[in-house]
Amino acid sequence: MSSRLLESRRGRFTTFSLLYISEGIPLGFTLTTMATYMRQQGVGLAEIGLFTAALYGPWGFKWAWAPLIDLIRPRRFGPHRTWIVASQSLMILTLSTALFLDLSTNFRLLITMMVVHNIFAATQDVAIDALAVRVIPSSELGTANGFMFAAAFGGQAIGGSAALFISGLFGFRAAFLLVLLVLVLLLLFVSTRLQEPDEVLSGLGDDASSELGSAVDRLRLLYRRVGGFLRDVYGGFFRSGWGPAVGVLLAFAPKGAIALGLTIATTIRVDMGLNENQIALVALLGSIGGALGCVAGGWISDRLGHRRSLVTWFALTTLPNLYLMAHLGDDGVVGLTLTAFTLATIGASLTNGLQYGTGNAVFMSLTNRNVAATQFTGYMALCNLANTYTSVWQGAFAGRHGYRRTLGLDALIAIVPIVLVCLIRPPRKQDDKPSSA
After folding, report:
1. Which residues, at least 6 apart from 22, have a Cβ–Cβ distance to it below 8 Å?
2. Of 269, 218, 288, 248, which is closest to residue 386 (Cα–Cα)?
3. CA atoms in the 13 A half-sphere facing the CB of 77
């Protein structure tokens, strides 16, 4: 890849879409393929809810190490490329070790490995998003994020649907190998060849000269950088109007009705008695719907306004829940047809896809570029914490009260993010000159 790719609209969309595919593959594999296999092996709803929480948990705490990406900025290989390549390499390594585990008997060890794997996956995400905040113009944020999340859905389709097809034909380990192969190819032909624009490298300030300075000079540079970093973080959250502060609350709230995008959708498929091919087909159709929703939502929001569009998308996420509730009884999935469930899945993926790109555009617009990794990651970490606590309560609640009531409560909670979006105001304009360099 050439740095010129990141300097053109088409190049930015292509580059970040490919990077987001690498983010979607492990998530699709663990959330769909592995969770399906575990349910088939007799693992309970509560345990699978805990497993899903383990996938999202590290993403909820990535803010703790995100400042390292703002503070440690190697010039030689590129500040963001270094972090991306290192993280992807460790993701492949940790996922490879899980290949040799019995997922039904080594549950605790599996949880541990997934937490470690997702620490590296979350770190990769921080670096990718920090680079995106720096190089994507505000006029492209909705569309760019739409393509990025559409690519993530494509990655989830590879790790979920494609892997399930392979699992049904050749066994679970063959699906594992497929996922690892695609990740390795993306690492070799995309991430390692990524070149960052001169404007990003020039923002490193005196980092290069510090390599030749004395230990005292390096300590002084670190002191200045940390001090500037803290000022930028404080200014980004608390001296830019109330928009960024309300953004914190929005990030911690569920993003509309999301039950059919987490544990519930996977367990319903298995409880209906669907085989691997049927589950894979439903997941694939959902991924296609989600990808279309991402692109459409981002494109529309760039033209009608991000916040106005986001309110509409959140309201639409409740419709698939209500539709599926009408086809469910108190006896669980008894009487639920494959057609009805497939339509609900596509609808949920489509409506959630609409809000993904638009929501990210809102959070990016609230972010100070000088500390993009830290502030934007703070928002994204809270979003993933929302998925974590939602997975836990929905798995436990569904186990006790059934799917129908869980879907209804999930739809009711969607009013919270709608109210918060209405309260957000654009941040006051900040100085583009970094105080951390």
Report:
1. 88, 124, 155, 183, 186, 187, 190, 191
2. 248
3. 11
Percentage of the chain surpassing pLDDT 90? 27
Tell me how far apart the alpha carbons of residues 177 and 182 are, in angstroms, rounded to a whole number: 9
Residue 209: per-residue pLDDT: 42
- 172-189 and 9-28 helices cross at what angle (nearest 10)? 150
pLDDT at residue 386 greater than cutoff 50? yes
Q: How far is CA 254 from CA 283, 286, 297, 299, in A?
A: 22, 20, 18, 23
Block residue for tokens 């979003």: 383
pLDDT at 428: 62
The 8 Å CB, 24+ separation contacts for 237-241 are 237/375, 237/378, 239/428, 240/366, 240/368, 240/427, 240/428, 240/430, 241/425, 241/426, 241/427, 241/428
Q: In this structure, what are the phi and psi dihedrals at residue 425, rounded to the nearest 5 degrees? A: -125, 150
Q: How confident is the model at residue 434 (pLDDT cuts 50, 70, 90)?
A: very low
**What residues contact 387, with CB distance under 8 A and at least 6 apart?**
56, 59, 60, 258, 262
Please name the helix (run of DSSP H) or strand (run of DSSP E) that holds residue 353, with its range, or none. helix 338-365
Average pLDDT over residues 383-404: 85
Which tens digit of pLDDT belongs to each residue from 312-343? 999 999 999 999 999 887 777 788 889 999 99
Helices (H), 99-191: 107-135, 141-157, 163-170, 172-189
Is the four-CA dihedral 359, 65, 192, 199 of positive or negative sign?
Answer: positive
Contact status, residue 186 vs residue 18, Cβ threshold 8 Å: yes
Q: How far apart are CA 391 and CA 354, in angstroms?
A: 21
Cα 11-14-18 angle, rounded to 5 deg? 140
